[in-house]
Amino acid sequence: MQFWRKTKEESAIPTKYKELMQLSIVLVQHCRPCIRLHTEICVSVGCTREEILDAANVALAMGGGPVFEYIGYLVEALDEYLPRQKPV
After folding, report:
1. Closest by Cα among 59, 54, 52, 58 to 77
2. How far apart are CA 17 and CA 62, in angstroms?
3. What is the four-CA torsion angle of 28, 33, 39, 45, rounded to 10 degrees?
4. Cα angle vertex 21, ends 80, 42, to 5°?
5. 12-44 confidence digits (pLDDT tens)
6. Mean pLDDT across the chain, nearest whole number?
7. pLDDT at 80
8. How many angstroms from the chain centroid is the CA of residue 28?
9. Domains in the chain, CATH or no CATH each
């Protein structure tokens, strides 16, 4: 657990980018609760909707077709934690 906590500290890679990496990894691992958790954390550390969806595209490129289903769970969580802007 100590090692996992270390990944949350500032280092050469800013926390925001580490969270985006973790989100990509849990998408490839098909972990639904992890997708929700890391989406929430990404939003809390300042990731934009575009950055999060970009990370999902990386996961899709690396994990292939099976990741596509799990991107739906990410979008659900994203809509909850970072609602879409309504057109003006």
Report:
1. 52
2. 17
3. -110
4. 30
5. 999 999 999 999 999 999 999 999 999 999 999
6. 91
7. 95
8. 11
9. 15-81 (1.20.1290.10)
- Residue 19's H or E segment, with its range, is helix 15-29
**Rg of the chain over CA atoms, in angstroms?**
13
Q: How far apart are CA 75 and CA 61, in angstroms?
A: 17
Number of H helices, E strands in the chain: 5, 0
* Full-model pTM: 0.87
Cα-based angle 77, 34, 57 (whole degrees, multiple of 5): 65
User: Is pLDDT at 8 greater than 90 in this prediction?
Assistant: no
User: In the predicted model, is pLDDT for residue 83 greater than 90?
Assistant: no
